[in-house]
Amino acid sequence: MKIGVVVHGPEIVDSGYAQKFLDFLEDYGTVGARLGGTMGRTAVIDAHLEDKIDISQKLFPSQSVDKFKDENCDVIFLINYGKSSVTGHAFGYKVYHNCQDQPPLIQMERPGESDGSVVAWREDKMKLAEDIAHKMDLQLVLPEDIHNNLFSEDPCQEISNTICREIAGVSPGENIFVNGIVIGKSTSSEVAIVAENGIITQLIGGEIKEHGVEKLGPITLRKAVVKTGLLRKSRVKPRILKSGKSNDHFTISYLNHAAEDIYRLKNADMVVTVGDDTTLVAADILYRFNVPIIGITDGDLDKVVEEGFKAEGSLIVELENGWDDQVGDKIFLELFNREETIEIENIENFKSKLLQIISNITSQYQVKYS
């Protein structure tokens, strides 16, 4: 039997269950695994599993499932460790219904927890799902039960150009991410996002973050990737990979959106990041590749990972609230000539020029070195 495994999120890797399940499945056939998501890549690297789980592409979970289906896998497993069974099952439901056709998908959710479960999203895989649930001491949950409990009514109701999307399994005080950008924080357990003409206008049951909404721009809310809580909860010992970088010249890249593929910058010598959340996420990922960052921030920081890391040689410029994008645009224009990546001969000279640009705009900033 040809088996595909889509590994989603860092928790399933950090918990050790991704490794255990991949080993377990080898008794059933030939196993291939690939990742879905960004922070999961970091977890795979930290766990030394990049030779076992393909992290070479940035794919949505449904895209990874479709890719395995195109490769004629007999069964595809989606393994996830959601913060609750509600969020996990809602995630699996969304993935399955975002896939092309009806893939032979089985979900393993929250193994090791008392509510850990297996879901056969396609009926002809029920027998295999039952067998795996029994052997791994997990509950067997039926897709129709998930639908009836969570999706019996369409969570997106369209009135003219207004869309409302309910978010399942939210706790008060959690960040709400849309396509990788924090757009607000929950104040209750019943949260819904409202968008008009593609722009988020309201966060029911939460406080909206206008700067995040502005940075996000227009979206298709029904298809947007929505997450809540922390992107990575585990406290881990990060693994730093060796690099063979040249000292003859230096590559500097510019990043102003955390939802972009940060891993493509792993061979840069330094990355200028704009925005608090972008800086935190990028610094944490690039730490694994020993890439320092210059973070342009304004103190509007949301806690998006449990513990963040920065490579030696990084510096954080903290401006007054609301200035980070304006300063970032000026740096992008004057230092990068609106090119995403440039080559320079001297990093210290580059830092000096960058700080001079900031000084020309405002004297109200602090520089923190690491």
Automatic annotation (TrEMBL):
The taxonomy runs:
Archaea, Methanobacteriati, Methanobacteriota, Methanomada group, Methanobacteria
Protein name per the record: DUF2117 domain-containing protein
Q: Which organism is it from?
A: Methanobacterium subterraneum
InterPro entries to which the protein is assigned, alphabetical = UCP006598
